[in-house]
Amino acid sequence: MIAYIVRRLLYAIPILIGVNLLTFVLFFVVNTPDDIARSQLGDRRVTQEAIDSWKAVNGYDRPIVFNTKVAGVEKLTNTIFFDKSVRLFAFDFGRSDSGRDISYDISQRMWPSLVIAVPTLLVGILVNITFAMLIAFFRATYIDFWGVVLCVILLSISSLFYIIAGQYLLSKLFHLVPISGYDTGLNALKFLILPVVISVIHGIGSGTRWYRTIFLEEIGKDYVRTARAKGLGEGIVLFRHVLKNAMIPILTGVVVVLPLLFMGSLITESFFGIPGLGSYTIEGIQRQDFAIVRSMVFLGSVLYIFGLILTDISYTLVDPRVRFS
Amino acid sequence: MAVAAAMSVFGVDARLNNPYPAEESVDNIVYSSFSERPKHLDPARAYSSDEYGFIAQIYEPPLQYHFLERPYTLVPLTADGMPEVRFFDASGKQLPDSAEAAVVAYTEYEVRLRPGVMYQPHPALAHDGRGRYLYHDLTAKQVDSLRKLDDFAETGSRGLRADDYVYQIKRLADPQTHSPIAGVMAQYIVGFGDLAEKIKSAREQSGTGYLDLREFELSGVEVVDAHTYRVRVKRKYPQFLYWQAMPFFAAMPWEADRFYGQPGLAERNITLDWYPIGTGPFMLAENNPNLRMVLARNPNFHGEAYPVSGEREDEIAGLLEDAGAMMPFIDKAIYSLEKESIPRWNKFLQGYYDNSGISSDSFDQAIQFTTQGDAGLTESMAERGIELTTSVQASIFYMGFNMLDDNIGGGSERARKLRHAISIAVDFEEFISIFTNGRGVPAQGPLPPGIFGHRDGEEGINPYVYDWVDARPRRKPIEAARQLMREAGYDDGIDQQTGRPLVLHFEAVARGPDDKARLNWIRKQFDKLGIQLVVRSTDYNRFREKMLKGTGEIFFWGWNADYPDSENFLFLLYGPNSKAKFNGENASNYANPEFDGLFEKMKNMDNGPERKRIIDRMVNIARRDAPWLWGFHPKSFSLFHSWYRNVKPNLMANNTLKYKRVDPELRHRLREEWNEPVLWPIGMVGGLLVLSVIPAVVSFRRRERSTAL
Lengths: 325, 709
Description:
The structure holds two protein chains of two kinds.
Chain A: H1 2-30, H2 33-41, H3 48-58, H4 74-77, H5 80-85, H6 102-137, H7 142-156, H8 159-173, H9 189-219, H10 222-229, H11 234-257, H12 266-272, H13 277-286, H14 290-318
Chain B: H1 2-9, E1 29-34, H2 49-58, E2 63-65, E3 74-76, E4 84-88, E5 94-95, E6 106-112, H3 140-144, H4 162-173, H5 182-188, H6 192-206, E7 221-225, E8 228-234, H7 240-243, H8 254-260, E9 282-288, E10 292-297, E11 304-305, H9 312-316, E12 326-327, E13 332-337, H10 341-349, E14 355-356, H11 360-366, E15 367-369, E16 375-377, H12 379-383, E17 387-392, E18 395-401, H13 413-425, H14 428-435, E19 440-442, E20 466-469, E21 472-475, H15 478-488, E22 503-509, H16 513-527, E23 532-538, H17 540-549, E24 554-560, H18 567-570, H19 579-582, H20 593-602, H21 609-625, E25 628-640, E26 644-645, E27 661-662, H22 664-674, H23 680-705
Parallel strand pairs in B: 1-13, 22-23, 22-24
Antiparallel strand pairs in B: 2-3, 4-5, 4-6, 6-8, 7-8, 9-10, 10-13, 11-12, 14-25, 15-16, 17-25, 18-24, 18-25, 19-25, 20-21, 26-27
Helix pairs in contact in B: 13-15, 20-21
């Protein structure tokens, strides 16, 4: 297994270089170093001298990817791309274009993201499995039909609608929770209820349909027929046999998203004023802060790759038939 | 009830939707919001309203604007009186106060500071028992243990000195500070440019670390004594006094630069741009711009009395009830980040914000217009005791024509008539009504109301676009515009010289669906004249690039006043400020030798009849040449609750938090009244769940018991 993991990690290096290069190219297609400087200095009365000075101080005064003014390997290393990218591989995110330590900001802002994402994931799984099992149990009945219709309706509605409707009903009309905001410690609890409830409801449609499919696939297998033939009740068949085996794809599906929980949700965090990594990424894009955008994309890629490796590992743990090769 | 009980376990207020801790309920706190994180808190760098909303409460320049009096009047803040102004000719001989601007080679401003002004508690000023600074020589190990300013155990303070203001002016010159006004000040303050060069070469030798600016001489600025300093500027430049009311010219102790310049602190996010140090009524107690920013009363504040005079209606409005009382009246101000308008608006209605603007989404809910066109509150707002203030901003949003463009630009009669025709056709009254909910005043020229030189009434209308009918300006009929088009050789939008339709290009920065409606509207306005308008939508960077290169044709832009002087608007049309040629603020690249000559004469004059005559002439020239389609002056609508007092819009002053007063008891009572929890939906949802589970359980049990056959 260790050899497999090492091999996967080595595969990750060219992927990360590619992601980094792509981010870099896309960013600099729409932003020149002058644009970045102006976004930091503002538009009013700013002089070209001030822009040049800012670029020099922040390392944007060099060629972007190829330096013709120097010799040898420096043609590649004495460039904005090399200077801003290589350190990422040591997880040294450096400082944002506004001068903040990005690693520190990430370490501070990942917690609010996690505080929202973890309960959303856990409650969501529980609710989705419950509904999916209920529908699977009543398969081919009107409950199944209307359940699926309801799921399709739920997953067709924009997440913004859930947020606005949730804020309107629970906070504005019924005064049950704060409409937005965040706090630390136990004081955070009252701010979590609404985003978690909304996120869970938003996920019911797609989650329940997916799990229902998994359950129905399992229900049609021979071992279930055997269990029924033994005279086991439908409840025991579902909970003891079907659920156990259906948990393999469910578990692996969950494992792959676990690392990404750190990255937060762009829309939820913005609407609820939660200072997580999702809103951090949005801010970086809006402010044209290349250092933040680059770091967050890199971190997202690393976490995604990590998630995929974890998924592979989890497969072998829950399904002994799967082996690394 | 279960929810209420659960919440009370966690010590949460009985009002479940209260976003603040229950123990704060009756504290003397102002609650407000902000939508954009301030980029800079360093007074040498900050230049936007988002930033001034905070730092103007913390830093104190020598002057400020009178809170109540209009027109806007400068009054001393940390200065002991208004600066003494002396004029000198080129030989250094002092001139009388009435000296003509043309003979004045230098103007000297002598500022005397009031005694007893102290800095807020700050570690940069902390001493040990022997007068040595505690934190000016931190070791690497000490730095490693720091993450925020509160990690410093000790704080200190000291009195404000004249050299603190001089130090700040030197900071403006330091290229590493990146002050946006360094370029402007280099044109005026004697020796400013030389100092910038010296600092630049010193930095090239020493690197980017701390540089003691006290060791550098700035020939035009001198410390006379501990509480007096002089600034010498080139020529006569009356606007310099207005700059003295902006945070750029606030005091900065050298110790702050020395403290924050230590190696390793910037890497740990401990910078002057994040942790201000000022003498103002408030200090930044919490800086978490991703969540909230908290201003707390500065225990060392020197004290300042509420104004005892104002406009006549101020007394009626109760704005003089606190006359002479010592400020500030509140202990704390909590600003929460609200990026979205819906939560912000609802929190205001729930009483959790003391004041609010009005977004387009909420406008109809809040405002109704009388048959006379006056704005008033809707019944639901009035019932809550909410009050409204409106004011025309010292700003202009205009549609600019690139005067370098072959089609639309230039000084030919043909191009001028084309621009006048478009000016008539683009109906800004309609634009204001549709896209700003009536919050604007159509502009008759570059000067907004309230700025010296602006004229109201018939004499103030733009005669090329409006007629004076029934005691009000009326836009000329579209036929007048079509006639101008014919005279310009574009009958029905067809170029008579080429026989081709006239195609113009509008440079737009489009971000969303709202922009599409706006762009369609603009296209229709041009269509009235048969002109085909091609909208070139792009992102802001490309738009800015086009403006810098002068390759755009027609565009929409705006300007907010730095200070209440006509020079600050007319310079937007001054030839040597051309954006394409000189990277200035004249985005339409307009250049008229007569206008430019008058501007050079007017800008250094004191307000008076002669200056007004020149401004009139300049405005008329600009109206005739029409480099802009004058657009509109936005009108701000602000709402505030009955417990929030001393509210008067002041478009120039940013340090107005100290005047505010709240009635926390009234606020608490009304919040309780407005936010009674409605618990029956929880019971209903629970009941529905139970009811829906019962048949499922019954059905499940029936299946379990049923036989296969």
